[in-house]
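Input:
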Amino acid sequence: MPVNPMTSSEESLADQVIQAYRDKQPLRIVGGGSKSALGHTVTGTDLCLNHYQGIINYEPSELVITARAGTPLHIIEATLAEQGQMLGFEPPRYNNKATLGGTIACGLSGPRRPYSGAARDFVLGCRMINGKGERLNFGGQVMKNVAGYDVSRLMCGAQGTLGVLLDISLKVVPRPQLEQTLSLECDETQARTLLNNLGLKPLPISATCYQDGQLCIRLSGSESAVMAAAQFIGGEQQIGGEQLSGDEALTGREQLWQQLREQQLPIFKQPFFWRLSLPPATGPLPKEIVEQQVIEWGGAQRWITSQADPETVWNLARSLGGHGTRYGTDESLRQPLEPGLFKLSQQLRTSFDPERILNPGRLYPTL
Amino acid sequence: MTLSPDSLHPDSQHPEAQREQRLNDLLPLLRQLIPTQYIITEVEQLRAYECDAFTTMRQLPLLTVLPDTIEQVQHVMRCCHQLDIPVVARGAGTGLTAGSMPVENGVLLGMSRFDQIYNIDPDNRTALIGPGVRNLAVTEAAAVHNLYFAPDPSSQLACSVGGNVAENAGGVHCLKYGLTVHNILELEMVTASGELITLGSAALDAAGYDLTAILTGSEGLLGIVVRIRVKLLPRAESCRVMLAAFATIEDAGQAIAAVIGAGIIPAGLEMIDQTGICAIEELMHAGYPVDAAAVIICELDGGEAEVEDELQQVIQIFRELHATDIQIAEDAEQSTRIWAARKAAFPALARLAPDNYIMDGTIPRRALAQVWKQINLLADQYQLQVVNVFHAGDGNMHPSILFDSSNEEEHQRAFELGTRILELCIEVGGTISGEHGIGLEKINQMCLQFNPQELAQFHALKQAFDAKTLLNPGKQIPTLARCAEFNGLHVHNGEMPFPHLERF
Ligand SMILES: Cc1cc2nc3c(=O)[nH]c(=O)nc-3n(C[C@H](O)[C@H](O)[C@H](O)COP(=O)(O)OP(=O)(O)OC[C@H]3O[C@@H](n4cnc5c(N)ncnc54)[C@H](O)[C@@H]3O)c2cc1C
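Output:
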């Protein structure tokens, strides 16, 4: 469903970048503003993408959608839903202003991520403006594309520091016929053992969440697959004699995934909370460091609160093979990179944005 | 900054003299850390490394070095960095685009001795391996846990996972389970200057830029991959394979789009044209219907009941599109036979002609039938036989142009036909390569897909990793000068439909 081309505004965006490049003046790239707290505060002239909207191309049988970066996420999701499709990475929105560009630039993925892939796994191509104001096209609209370096995936999570996203092409997936949530009272170790065992079976698990002695498992897929899996997990995988509850106990469970995805659970209301990204089978974290916690992604993503200083939490995450980010009300703090990797990242940034004008310092103050 | 080929060899010395000089400089340094038997300098032995599976392009390296520790790789890189000597990495040499073909008077870095599986972690469903491990070996080692490594290129018996990472290899199952980039978590990489850097992590993501993504598919131009943590998936409970014959290409092409449009994602969805069917049947006797215009192989996997449902749906779709003959494998043996025949496509085609130029363009599924017919038209006009055996589900065409390279004119004609086919792919919104990569083989066609600014951005990115342009120089990303020359000679689309034809 093509919409009016907004080429004039594309040109004006590029012109603003060219001007900033000439003047060596920093730009603050803004979509809907819903995710400003996901990076450091950037000072610079606003480069507004929220008017650069519209779905450029969507053909359900190709499983591909191409849209302008400023398109509100909820519009994209509604358009896909009409055709029985969806974004496989279940991105958080936070609010209705969230744009596609902001979502991809932040590389945000929701509860479904470990089972169907992250935002970057669905990116097929993009058009972007680099730090010299050049409009460039990488990747495309097809499922497989190895012509040149995979720059469009690199844009995921770069938070605009490598380029201003203009249009993005994403692979989309069919909506599952049925979703069902199972829940189980158990302790963390039991939950982990169960999830490790289930991980070796080809089950249609699409999300997990453990908090306060309760493990929830969401199943998504064809009716037959979900029913079979529910029966298998409920019937055979008992822990300590406890029984998993089936559909009778479902009421209100769907809400959990929504709250988890949109970060509305109580833990996200704390002034500071941490996201630890860890190998999924990691055991319980030391009690001296962790206060509250919500474990999702089969163990791979843990939201915690902690009184410990950032260094301590980072060291813990590093020692376990992962990393941590502290989120706060207006800024977030990322785990420092190893010196060699940091230097390479700086060189990479310079190769896209030689004057360092695009969202400078947003990811790391000196990057 | 210019990157003309000449700037790669700044010393205008005679190649032979340069070779002597470089050997004298480099050998004593290499030997400080690498046992002599793993440094090959004899021309006869070096012949084994002069090309990959794209055998029409060859080049002897200065020497081949076969390290087996990360320290040794770092040492090789430091020595070469110090002496400004280019380095080309090689996995198993099954690449189809001359990617691991050596560069003149450059070092060939063979990674085959990095063939260890360090650990298989069933709880985290990962394997930590050396880049020289064969693709299939990972799946074999993980099988005891009911796990496997999803990317399965047809070359999986031989190709290395390091090579898979470098090419972002796909396979018959990537429609559902993703390409290499979707199935790796962490890479350890040695840079052009010999530094060891870890990209990604054992978790699902890492802090900072997604450098695992950019390294995947970078064809050995950004760094040497020395260790890989791959993701493993649980084996599906049930799996059904079917083969359907169609009387027309249009019906077959539509059938592909219809299956995907119905919300079914088969584990594999492959298509073979008539010449392909006959060639395969002659070699494998798999029971392929030799009179069909095209066959589709469709594999469905998942839970038992789910697969049964989908199977019925697919049969229905195929029938509606006039499938003439639908065979459904009744057991694992029959499934294996159908797949083995598909995977034997390359040897089968090799029997038809001395040489076989395999294209790898990828197009939107909706354009399959149209492009397929246009390819056949072009083939007639170029008086060459083209056979199509390909990953239809993801639109990845593999037209194989059959020719005889001993006939210089025919060789030239095959290359031009190849370019026309790739142009066609770009025209319908596709790409010149879906999984085989660019290497040297498709370097000119990169000029058709990317404009000078985009190419300059690629070069700048490369410089961020490899400021001296020592890693696999001259491959994957053409210089602007090269493109100016190519685009000048090459008549662009939009002008006369087939401007070269009068010459044949
Ligand atoms: C019969 C046949 C069928 C094939 N089928 C498929 C298919 O279905 N799908 C598919 O995607 N491909 C296919 N291929 C192509 C090929 O097998 C793949 O590209 C494979 O990934 C190459 O692996 P390799 O180990 O042989 O790499 P090589 O050919 O040795 O090298 C390929 C590239 O990787 C680089 N490289 C290798 N190792 C490293 C390393 N450790 N670090 C950095 N760079 C490195 C090299 O420099 C080169 O650029 C097929 C090839 C053949 C011959």
